[in-house]
Protein 1
Amino acid sequence: MPYLFPDDYVLNVSSSGLDRPVVSDDDFRRALGTEIEVCSKEGKIHGILKEYSAQDFTIVTGDKNPKDKTISRNNKTKVQPYIRF
């Protein structure tokens, strides 16, 4: 039986967008109800994205005592999906 590939090769498989930043309104819409991580000058926090607008967004933090936290959408705030291992 002939080989499909004459030489050895390496196949890399990855998930595109798993840790892709949440930037646009469409990204925020897709992330509604999911857990996100926010990195800002105040530090890192994560929670469930509850709502968003053009100026800010709100996440629900904490498991036992949930609290709403509203964060400004600016260029200094990095938002991405929170990945649990």
Protein 2
Amino acid sequence: MQNYGRIRDYLYSLKHKGSKYGIDRMRLFAEQLGQPQLKFPCIHVAGTNGKGSTCSMLEAIYRANGYKTGLYSSPHLIRQGERVQVNREILDEADIVAYTERLRPIADALGAADADDHPSFFEFMTAMAFLRFAEAEVDIALIETGLGGRLDATNVVDPELSIITSISLDHVEQLGDTLTAIASEKAGIIKAGKPVVIGLLPGEAEAVIRQVAAERGCSVHSVVEHYPELEQLPQTNLAGSFQRWNAAAAELASELLRERFPLDSAQRSQALKSVQWPGRWEQVPLPERTLILDATHNPEGAIYLAENLARLVEQSGKKPIIVAGTLGEDRGRKLMETIAPYAAELYLLKPNQSRATATEFLEGCLPPERNFTVQHAQIQDLFPAVGQCTLGKSGDTIVVTGSIYLIGEVLERLTCEDPIQQGVLQD
């Protein structure tokens, strides 16, 4: 772990590298590594919401059918190695040290020639994933984009198929402030002649995707067209109607690739009903209470959070205690608007991230007339030790929502005797 601490500090320093916006730096890095991303088949997934869930569903489907899988996702919740998994086994600290020591001389050489060509943290992790999957000889890898698509570091892959799960307004500073602009960025993952699966998209966004696909000679397969009735959507253990749309995208993609990757339909259905994807309406056991962790980090996600909260209140007959914190004022404003009708009590936290929203701002977004108390809190007071939560009484439900980074911090306090301190390694 001492070696890992040194490596973690180096990786943290990469958050300030790579000031040039674009994909050219990742192309250089991949070229120097011998193009490992081209040595295994993959499915590339973009989307405002749902891309991680869809990747995890596809991973479960293929692993259940006997394939060796790679899964690349971000951000991590507790451990950095969660980002890079083979058959759902994460990279441990020793693996990260070894890969970093191999990659660092190459990255530093690129930076020596031009400081702006030094890979960023996300590019470094992406390269680590590509090397890991190539050397493990995975049968198929599920690759989630980090941001957007066209200029994302993952977009050096040559996928068997691309998926665009959803499109809504988020990261507008980088991707544009209209649905068509954001759709154009997401469509950047579409590769010539390769099929494209699209989820439930706004009409103007879908039109952009279809236009780009047509220009690149790609067939487009819509979950709405393949599952015209809601009852036809596959079932999954992940909560919320939107997860059934994600399951539909995963099922449809696996069907389109069935000739190359044969599978058993019954095994696929069972896999979708046993997916593991932490922090998405995840229930964590507490003595005599229910704790739910749900990452809801943008306005589209808030719509589905409201759906889950309404169902929770209907089923339990009472409102939950809500703990919330966000990154970004627009996200915070929408989250407060969403949770206000459902809160019995509200505790506002500030995630340990530089872009975290002040809790005073969050309270200012709440309606002045409200029938619940609001408190500004510290995470260590609410979750003081492993398995402990100071909120509520017997029979109560506590919902922690907002930033995925906050979810990770809560999970760490609930499950780790000593702080892992890998939350600083975020994008």
